[in-house]
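Fresh eyes needed here. Have a critical look at this protein's tokenised backbone.
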Amino acid sequence: MVDLSGDAHVIAVDLPGIGESQGLPSSNDKRTLASYVGSLIRQLGLRDVTLVGHNVGGQITYSYLRFDSGPLKRAVIMNVVIPGVDPWTEVKRNPKIWHFAFHAVPDLPEKLVCGRHRGYFDYFYDTISASKDGVKEDARKTYAKAYSRPEALHVGFEWYGAFSQDEKDNRSNTEPTVQTPVLYIRGDHEGDIQNYLEGFHESDFLNVQGSVIPNSGHFAADERPGEVAKASREFILG
């Protein structure tokens, strides 16, 4: 964001209940969360908007494109599989993605992780980054602080609990095709990007291109911020 701030007006959005955002959302399905983002865009009167989402933010960006009629010129989705969109089924049954099921269990993850969430988060930063130092210490502290309230940790786990509803929403065939230009970014250590691009096309996203970030795992914006900024700038500004 710092890199892009000279070319664009950049806004960081804390999702409802996380970080500086107080109060709980009415639901944690991504269609509902996308409506919050849409309301923010409209209330701020933003124009020529590029919505950028990493991980669950990417799932919300997808839902915004599918279900919100608000103004959006383009979108960037990073390092995530979309519920109900290929290769979703393959990812869900991958034993290395065990945390999808664990986080979706009501109330239990909070009881086990609360007060230990910094160490729990570190496990993922260490194992699904391209290298253990991919996510720096200052960033780790910032992210842990954002989930320091029990309510915030609960909301984070509830995102996973809503995946079944997200699947139903995303598999519905009542919405029109999406013609908004989309850039899908993925770290090269996360495997082949092609299956993900095909999934977008099969779900009627007509204008999707991919960008693979070298020497990066799941946390591309932390691991290789310069490369992510470069790919985003080329997509946004041409």
Remarks:
- The chain has one domain: 4-237.
- DSSP finds twelve helices and four strands in the chain.
